Amino acid sequence: MGSATLRYFCYGCLFTSVTWTLLLFIYFNFSEETQSFKYVPIKGFEPQKPFPKKFYPRFVRGSVHVPEPQHKDSNPLGNGAKNSVEGDAEFSPEMGMIFNEQDQEVRDLGYQKHAFNMLISNRLGYHRDVPDTRDPKCKEKSYPPDLPHASIVICFYNEALSALLRTVHGVLDRTPSYLLHEIILVDDNSELDDLKEHLGVYISKNLPNKIKLVRNEKREGLIRGRMIGASHATGKVLVFLDSHCEVNKLWIQPLLTPIRESRRTVVCPVIDIISADTLTYSSSPVVRGGFNWGLHFKWDLVPLSELEGPEGATSPIKSPTMAGGLFAMDREYFNELGQYDSGMDIWGGENLEISFRIWMCGGKLLIIPCSRVGHIFRKRRPYGSPGGRDTMAHNSLRLAHVWMDDYKEQYFALRPELRNRSYGNITDRVELRKKLNCESFKWYLDNIYPEMQISGPNAKPQPPVFFNRGQKRPKTLQRGRFGV
Ligand code: UD2
Ligand code: MN
Questions:
Q1: Looking at ligand 1, which residue's alpha carbon is closest to its atom 6?
Q2: What is the radius of gyration, based on Cα positions, of the chain?
Q3: What mean pLDDT is predicted for residues 385-406?
Q4: Phi, psi at residue 230, to the nearest 5°?
């Protein structure tokens, strides 16, 4: 009798635990929260499919808020999952999981306001290691000890606080202190609450004195914003970064070295890709900047002739244009060369304008393969311009009229509606071009960008261009990788 009771008791326990296991299994595998991940493209997983079952959560965690000051190795999930990655970037799927409504809200708000996954950005915190994406030969290079020190200028408008502070801490963590003269943050009159008092308090309480915050009283746009930042700078070299970047190992020494050799050399790092959906950091191929007659920036493969030197793929590469966001330049040279066109508004075109100006007025623009900086590539620009104006067209018109001589007709052939559009006063910029004794646009095309195809009556046969044979067309060569 006793043993039968014990047997039924054991069966009962077994039945209860099996039922609970089943119920929990169904809850975690088929709840709406976990299903929402199927829309998050994860590197290495097929899009539109849910995570493999083994990555589903086993228990529910609290929400993650934008963290308070963090030490280098802390992880806001508090679960031992690594923020850092060695070698190839691996995504920890837990980082993107939604455990409760608040997580869902942060994620939705992030996509809406910043066009990237703010939930993951917040969870990554302010410090993370990134994979060393440099060519192995870069590790054998050494740099002079007496490099000029740098002022880093970072303009931001309504940036996600975690992305902005990861940009700042990344610079602090991976730049030797003697080369970092200061970081100047220019708030372009952001409206988001946590960029107001909270950011000011965070900086004064937790960051060294060399981090300065300048607030614009009205929205200026990134072009005048950078000029304002540069006017506060006192370092020998200016380094401009977007507010959602992560610098890589030994990033600044290779940029400062060519500037030390020649103050008229302007340099850009290779821009690695930080995914907007997963925040994974991955390597970009070494490509160079070009443009098309619509005056859009584009990436081009590097001609073989540029790769044939003794240092091969690690030597600086001449680039006809820059992407715009990430570059370094001697500060006095920046001023001499006319800074930027202050008549340009909000976003667009300034990168081609400064590129043409550098080459046409006696400078040099190089991409430095051993310097790498990651940038969050969003699928759309998350902000507009006051009055919804097309600032890209306005800025492009200004640069076409100042720098492109008769070749501006190529632009108007594609954009006839802009031919009679007003573009403000360009007298100062035309005078600057004269004062600096700059070359013609034809000189630029013949000598710096002979690959540019000219359509219409000016067309002439193009010299053959040899690209790396068999090289797969890199993803970054697609148009529209920068903003929209
Ligand atoms: C690319 C460049 C960007 C700029 C732009 C053309 C890279 C990686 N990025 O677009 O630097 O050259 O092409 O103009 O090469 N910002 C302000 N005020 C504004 C608007 C933007 O401060 O009114 C800030 C913004 O927060 C960011 C930076 O300017 O830190 C660049 O803006 P973006 O990230 O929207 O530009 P992006 O990367 O699409
Ligand atoms: Mn950007």
A1: 348
A2: 26
A3: 97
A4: -65, -35
Q: How confident is the model at residue 14 (pLDDT cuts 50, 70, 90)?
A: low
Q: Distance between CA atoms of 172 and 251, rounded to whole angstroms? A: 12
| pLDDT value of residue 94 | 87
Atom of ligand 1 nearest to the CA of 381: 35
Indicate yes or no: pTM above 0.90. Answer: no
| Contact indicator for 143, 371 with CB cutoff of 8 Å | no
Q: Are 153 and 186 in contact (CB under 8 A)?
A: yes
Alpha-carbon distance values, 26 to 14, 15, 56, 62 (Å):
18, 17, 11, 21
Q: Within 10 A of 144 (CB to CB), how many other CB atoms are there?
A: 10
How far apart are alpha carbons 399 and 352 in whole angstroms?
8
What atom in ligand 1 is closest to the CA of residue 219?
23
Pairing of strands 364-377, 327-330: unpaired
Of ligand 1's atoms, which has the minimum distance to the CA of residue 220?
Answer: 23
Cβ < 6 A, ligand 1 pocket: 155-157, 159, 188, 219, 221-222, 225, 242-243, 271, 323-326, 346-348, 350-351, 375, 381, 482-483
pLDDT above 70 for 325: yes
Query: Among 81-90, 119-128, 231-240, 293-302, which stretch is predicted with the lowest mean pLDDT?
Result: 81-90
Distance of CA 278 to the CA centre of its chain: 15
What is d(CA 310, CA 288) in angstroms, rounded to the nearest whole number? 19
Distance (Å, rounded) from C-alpha 396 to C-alpha 438?
19
